[in-house]
Amino acid sequence: MKSPEATAYLPVVLEVFPDARLIWPHRDPIKAMASAVNMIGNFVWARSDTIPPASVFDFMTDPEASARRLSTPIDLIENGTIPSDQIASIRYDELVDDPLAALEKTYAQIGIDLSQAAREAIADHFARNPQEARKPHRYQTGDADRIAREREHFRRYQDYFSIPSEV
């Protein structure tokens, strides 16, 4: 469930694959929106000489619409469409702080054992690819007043999954 747009298809996915297990990664939505816009802007810049109109990003930058997309799965969990034992949450801050512990916790939420071989492979991957070895991704999230206005739209989502604010 990496993309909030995928939530529209969850009932169909679960109808076709009733035993599916879902993992939903969570991050401060304000930080996530800014990152997504920056990433897509870089893709467009690298692949085209034409600058798209600013409205191209409206679906991603409208906090009210984004908050509705993030609330849809909460409704599906609460009404039983998504069985709570088939969905796991993984928070970005926990994944960054201790990737192996975060993955073990996530797998346990959906009843899947993380094998010793998998644990070793994950530990090896992160040992060979430390986050500090990469330059940080930099982007703007807006001024404090804008962030405060947008934050209110995401309150339900952040409270429901205990997602800390990063900005």
Attribute tags:
two-stranded parallel ribbon; Stf3_sulfotransferase; Sulfotransferase; 167 residues; Rossmann fold; 9 helices; P-loop_NTPase
Concise overview:
The protein is 56% helix and 6% strand. It has 167 residues and is mostly helical.
Description:
There is one protein chain. This protein has 167 residues and is mainly α. It has one domain (4-161): Rossmann fold (3-Layer(aba) Sandwich). The chain has helices at residues 10-16, 29-47, 58-61, 63-78, 92-97, 99-109, 116-128, 144-153, 155-161; strands at residues 22-26, 87-91. The model has no long low-confidence stretch (mean pLDDT 88). InterPro entries: P-loop_NTPase (IPR027417), Stf3_sulfotransferase (IPR052736). Pfam families: Sulfotransfer_3. It comes from Novosphingobium marinum. This is Sulfotransferase.
